Amino acid sequence: MSRAGEFILLPRSQPHSSTRSESDVQRLYVRDAEGNTLVDKSQLEKILLLNYMCNVEAEYQQGFHEMLLLFRLLAEKEHEIYWLFQFFLQKTENSCIMNIGVEKNLIMLRALIAFLDPVFAKHLEEKGQIVQSLFPWFCLFFQRVFRSFDDVWRLWEVFLTGLPCRNFQVIVAYTILQTVRDQIIKEDMSGDDILMLCNNIIDLDADELISKACTTYELFLKNNDKVPKEFQEFFSEP
């Protein structure tokens, strides 16, 4: 999986969206250790175009090509890959789409940090728009923080179950941020250094992350009586 690149949104009226998706797909590395081709790139291009045409609320988003590649490793037929992707978007309430769910995730993440770790929240606020700049985690649903495809899919399986709560992806993001919390505070990092540190988180273990995130959710539940009512619904049980 490529770690380079930025996330780009193009208006639906933009005629070059299909060209952009083709360019993204062509940059994918789709060979195994022996150099054998694993995936037909033209197939991914067609599925991306179909997704673009059928999801009227979503604009083209760079990064979908990497997500589709993972689904292609699970299924071969185009319609199976397409519906796997749609099922994932539905079950996660379109949380990886910039103009639909990502901003909501960032708002919830900022609120969760403020509630569970106000000292850290204050520190981050003093360094600029740190939380807002963590949007790539949600755009690819943490695909780049793991050491292997198996780890990515292990976390995604949890998201597909809907357990332990709605918007579990926000608690996962909070948990990842906690892994570098002490270093950020101890070294009094600048905003740029904090973002660089977060972007360099690449070798997490999925089972360990899931376990820690569930512990964080349990902590949230223990303090449920102190949480504003409008905030409680963000992490309600399914």
From TrEMBL:
Residues 1-163 form the Rab-GAP TBC domain. Keywords: GTPase activation. Pfam families: RabGAP-TBC. Coiled coil: none annotated. InterPro entries: Rab-GAP-TBC_dom, Rab-GAP_TBC_sf. PANTHER family: TBC1 DOMAIN FAMILY MEMBER 21, TBC1 DOMAIN FAMILY MEMBER GTPASE-ACTIVATING PROTEIN. This is Rab-GAP TBC domain-containing protein.
